[in-house]
Specification:
Strand content: 5-15%
Number of strands: 4
CATH superfamily of the largest domain: Winged helix-like DNA-binding domain superfamily/Winged helix DNA-binding domain
Structural class: alpha+beta
Helix content: 55-70%
CATH class of the largest domain: Mainly Alpha
Radius of gyration: 24 Å
CATH architecture of the largest domain: Orthogonal Bundle
Order of helices and strands: HHHHEEHHEE
Shape: elongated
Number of helices: 6
Number of domains: 2
Largest sheet: 4 strands, antiparallel
Amino acid sequence: MNTIEFWEESGELPGILNRVIAGLNRLVQNEGFTQSQSSDELREGYKYEVDSVRSFLRDEGYEPCEDEKVKMTEFYTAYRWYCTTNGLRAVLNKQLIQRLRSLGYIIKPGTGNVNYVHCRKAE
């Protein structure tokens, strides 16, 4: 027995159709889907659960800053240690740089082939 047959036999198919029509009317009236605070909070939480870079930045208190900088090698070492101690999968250095840039961090080369992450630890 497939799903439609089940609902037909149960006599609930008209009720389901009424709910679908009511939902469609709400979509038209609201001109699209509405935002849900609980959904937004779940989505934000999920971003940190699946992204070790975001988790590291949040948990270690890093934020973008133009005036202060950290050597990329030191930053990456701290990130790898964080991932190891928290059972997270670390990304490669190149991917870390890309993610940091996408989150608004500036990475600039310095002297002697050393890159710097412009950031500071929030207090």
